[in-house]
Amino acid sequence: MTENMATSSDDSAGAGKDGNKYKKGLETREKILAEACQLFDSLGFANTSIRRLIRNIGKSSSVIYNHFPDKEDILFVITHGTGVRVVDLLNDLMAQTPDADACLKKMIVEMLFLMEEPRLKMEISIFNNEAHHLSEDRRKLVNEMHLQIVHLFEKAVADVYQKKGRAAVNEKIAAYNILAAINWVYVWYREDGPLTLKEISEDITRFIFHGLD
Q1: How far apart are CA 56 and CA 70, in angstroms?
Q2: pLDDT band at 211 (very low <50, low <70, confident <90, very high)
């Protein structure tokens, strides 16, 4: 009985050490991604070197390569992960909001309010502007996420027109125009600017639904 208890205690200690090592590894990986986001967003992917990344996070090159085989892998993890997050958000909103008008408005507003998270704002900028640096296979996967976002907005527009009992405008053109309006806000919006995100989202949704009326 005593021997079994001792063995169990040793096993728990080993599991604890492994758990701490795993947690530390996750923290290091997250630190690498966070710093890469800062650099890719401010300097661009092409102008960011692994050497600069290593210097900024204060780790050896071996630590970086323990988590990512190369700089492109870091870019792929950021861009594809961001695409998945946005697609999941839009799918959840569509599932939770049966009214077509309310759903499209909520999709627009929630996309804009993603800018309240500084890290996610950078990730979306990288998703939109840096994915062309990926290899063909990886770029295709990220582009699929872009297309899923467009298709979800196409469906939302079609649902609004179906509710009105009228023929829809070209859903694809409408979806791209809505996303263009959202993405331009990502370019020029400043937290210390004259407009709040609430005011911007209200004006954009009002314009999309009512035009210049």
Answers
A1: 16
A2: confident
d(CA 196, CA 210): 21
How many other C-beta atoms can be found within 10 angstroms of the C-beta atom of residue 14? 10
Give me the domain span that covers residue 33. 1-68
CA atoms within 13 A on the CB side of 78: 35
pLDDT on residue 43: 96
Residue 87 structure tokens = 């697609």
Rounded Cα distance, 85 and 162, in Å: 28
CB count within 10 Å of CB 133 equals 18
CB 167 within 8 A of CB 161: yes
Judge whether 70 and 53 are in contact, CB under 8 Å: no
Number of structural domains the chain divides into = 2
Residues 84 and 55 in one domain: no
What CATH number did the domain enclosing 117 receive? 1.10.357.10
Give the contacts of 121 (CB within 8 A, at least 6 positions apart): 114, 115, 186
- pTM across the whole model: 0.84
